[in-house]
């Protein structure tokens, strides 16, 4: 098995533990690079703590990186391809999406690396002399992380090799677990972790009880639509979501935009976050799948503003890699209502101010032939509707209307802008990534209540999110009625609230509507997508390094 050819025990400590070792500060889970770790280091108290910290590092391969983003936002109903980049087979569902694509193996290998670290933490605990109370928490953290990693693998690839003991040497003995076995193992880990995790932690970034409850709720929601669904899956998910909402002091922020304020990352809405850092040494040694490590999401949603009249690239507006652009369905339907709902304006950047004064010929705005700017003038405005040529001619700047959108010019997602980078070409963003936040919990609760037929409870949960998203004085107008609290409404509300946050592909897949939604709203992929695309190809390296090959570890159908 590929990961076992890589993940000898020395690999667990020699690589994984390099990422998250040391605790020089009391309120965060800090990273300090170390070297020269021996095989028995993990059996010491310090080594054991370092290994637990190391188990978190695999999160940073999947969240806030281009591989993770490609596997969660490409190929959905709300995002299409931009002009730049490759890996577009994940969006087109064509022959470019095949078992040899390196992103598939990269995510696979790194998540298994994290799993084996967790296995070692759980199995080696009896040899460590930490206080029993501390040890119990560390084992619970490892079980939470192991379940989290297996859930990602399971949702992306289907049943995988379910290894729950430490792999100490290379092996080619492997097999695929059934759906029932996968759910049983994941639910067991989370159910055992929840009572032993603390309600909160003085070290920001550690797993806590509400994070595990929210993870388990997501598992039950996925199971509720699966071939092994049980009659109580929705009720269990609802109970867990209600606990997260009621028992730990989390609160929705008053303003949707403030959730993503880079100066307010540890806010009352965040249930669990993956930490990133501005330390270049950590970023360079951290195997995140990015060129230079760090949170890279600031790179991938930006339009090509920097070659337009009056503009040049700067730190504030970001480095636009143009990987993803919103679909017409996303801008016109999901975010179509803007009188009461603030989320279109606060999700997408619509105004650019000139940082390169002068007089220029216009490009995309045919209502005028030239524009002249001094520093700070509006240079580009995206109104979000088809403003008439006559009205555009009255403006002293270029107006980008929907008919002029392209793979290079489009509304830019603003959630992940990172203005704290040291220069305009720097790729390693330092923002944390919010894996779980309270608005998501409310929408999960609504989904569970819809599944249970409790439409009033569903409407109440949705309205918590919608009232917060309202423009001032529009809260009542944003509320939905009981009759509106349907599954389809939840599908769109999750898109409005969570666009770009690495949830959409997983949502559509678990609901069983991926193919239908892509055919309706993703014209680039409508002709190609099939039921086989509810799973990713198993990395060919995994099959090649399994004794018996495809007969023992079969490829997913159609690949």
Automatic annotation (TrEMBL):
Residues 269-558 form the RagB/SusD domain. Keywords: Cell outer membrane, Membrane, Signal. It is found in: Cell outer membrane. InterPro entries: SusD-like_N, SusD_RagB_dom, TPR-like_helical_dom_sf. Residues 50-221 form the SusD-like N-terminal domain. Belongs to the SusD family. This is RagB/SusD family nutrient uptake outer membrane protein. It comes from Flectobacillus longus.
């Amino acid at each position: 098995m590929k990961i076992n050819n890589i993940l000898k025990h020395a690999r667990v400590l020699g690589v994984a533990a390099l990422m998250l070792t040391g605790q020089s500060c009391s309120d965060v889970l800090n990273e300090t690079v170390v070297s020269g770790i021996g095989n028995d280091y993990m059996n010491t108290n310090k080594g054991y703590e370092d290994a637990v910290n190391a188990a978190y590092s695999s999160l940073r391969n999947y969240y806030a990186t281009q591989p993770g983003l490609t596997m969660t936002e490409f190929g959905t109903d709300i995002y299409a391809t931009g002009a730049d980049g490759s890996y577009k087979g994940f969006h087109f569902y064509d022959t470019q999406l095949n078992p040899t694509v390196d992103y598939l193996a990269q995510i696979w290998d790194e998540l298994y690396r994290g799993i084996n670290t967790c296995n070692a933490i759980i199995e080696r605990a009896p040899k460590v002399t930490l206080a029993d109370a501390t040890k119990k928490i560390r084992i619970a953290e490892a079980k939470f992380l192991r379940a989290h990693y297996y859930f990602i693998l399971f949702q992306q690839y289907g049943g995988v090799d379910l290894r729950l003991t430490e792999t100490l040497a290379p092996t080619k003995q492997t097999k695929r677990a059934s759906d029932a076995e996968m759910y049983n193992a994941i639910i067991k880990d989370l159910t055992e972790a929840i009572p032993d995790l603390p309600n909160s932690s003085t070290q920001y970034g550690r797993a806590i009880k509400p994070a595990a409850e929210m993870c388990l709720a997501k598992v039950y929601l996925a199971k509720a639509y699966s071939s092994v669904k049980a009659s109580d899956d929705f009720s269990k998910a609802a109970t867990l979501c209600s606990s997260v909402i009621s028992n730990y002091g989390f609160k929705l922020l008053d303003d949707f935009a403030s959730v993503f304020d880079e100066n307010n990352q540890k806010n009352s809405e965040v249930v669990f976050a993956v930490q990133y850092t501005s330390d270049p040494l950590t970023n360079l040694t951290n195997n995140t799948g990015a060129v230079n490590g760090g949170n890279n999401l600031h790179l991938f949603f930006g339009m090509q503003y920097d070659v337009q009249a009056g503009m040049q690239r700067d730190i504030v507006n970001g480095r636009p890699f143009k990987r993803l652009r919103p679909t017409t369905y996303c801008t016109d339907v999901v975010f179509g209502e803007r009188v009461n709902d603030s989320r279109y304006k606060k999700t997408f950047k619509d105004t650019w101010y000139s940082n390169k004064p002068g007089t220029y010929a216009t490009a995309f705005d045919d209502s005028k032939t030239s524009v002249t700017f001094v520093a700070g003038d509006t240079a580009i405005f995206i109104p979000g509707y088809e403003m008439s040529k006559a009205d555009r001619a009255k403006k002293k700047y270029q107006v980008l209307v929907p008919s002029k959108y392209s793979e290079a010019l489009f509304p830019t997602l603003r959630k992940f802008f990172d203005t704290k980078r040291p220069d305009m070409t720097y790729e390693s963003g330092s923002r944390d990534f919010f894996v779980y936040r309270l608005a998501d919990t409310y929408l999960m609760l609504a989904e569970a209540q819809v599944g249970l037929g409790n439409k009033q409870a569903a409407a109440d949960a949705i309205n918590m999110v919608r009232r917060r998203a309202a423009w001032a004085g529009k809260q009542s107008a944003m509320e939905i009625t009981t009759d509106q609290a349907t599954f389809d409404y939840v599908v769109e509300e999750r898109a409005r609230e969570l666009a770009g946050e690495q949830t959409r592909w997983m949502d559509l897949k678990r609901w069983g509507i991926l193919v239908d939604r892509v055919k309706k709203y993703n014209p680039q992929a409508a002709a190609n997508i099939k039921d086989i695309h509810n799973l990713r190809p198993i990395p060919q390296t995994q099959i090649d390094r399994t004794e018996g090959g495809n007969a023992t570890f079969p490829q997913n159908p159609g690949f």
